[in-house]
């Protein structure tokens, strides 16, 4: 994942190299998708990002807010629910 900055602040994390057979791909995520929130908490700093991703290990289900760019235009945010028990 790569951080995306807007006006000097982290806006989200972009997924890179999502393998077609990966867990993320099974949930419908793809390379270039930008995760902007985890369980309703915005990703606004590197520390927040690390904390949120570390927290995933203690949850069975996680909701991500994802922005997908199509033809260089950011579409409406997608809400993706990940069942981590799979």
Describe the 3D structure:
The protein is α+β, with helices and mostly antiparallel strands and 86 residues long. The protein has one domain: Pdz3 Domain (Roll). It is built from 2 helices and 8 strands. The chain has helices at residues 23-26, 46-55; strands at 2-6, 9-14, 34-38, 41-42, 61-67, 69-70, 73-74, 78-83. Strands 1, 2, 3, 4, 5 and 8 form a 6-stranded antiparallel beta sheet that branches. Strands 6-7 form a two-stranded antiparallel sheet. A hairpin with a 2-residue loop joins strand 1 and strand 2 (9-14).
Q: What brief labels describe this structure?
A:
86 residues, alpha+beta, Pdz3 Domain, two-stranded antiparallel sheet
Report the CATH superfamily: PDZ domain
Portion of residues within helices: 10-25%
Number of helices: 2
- CA radius of gyration is 12 Å
Question: How many structural domains does the protein architecture include?
Answer: 1
Classify the fold: give the CATH topology.
Answer: Pdz3 Domain
| CATH first level | Mainly Beta
Query: Could you tell me the mean pLDDT?
Result: 81
> Quick one: overall form?
globular
Number of E-state strands: 8
CATH architecture: Roll
What is the distance, rounded to the nearest whole angstrom, between the alpha carbons of the first and last residues?
A: 22 Å
The portion of residues forming beta strands comes to 35-45%
Q: What order do the helices and strands follow?
A: EEHEEHEEEE
Largest sheet: 6 strands, antiparallel
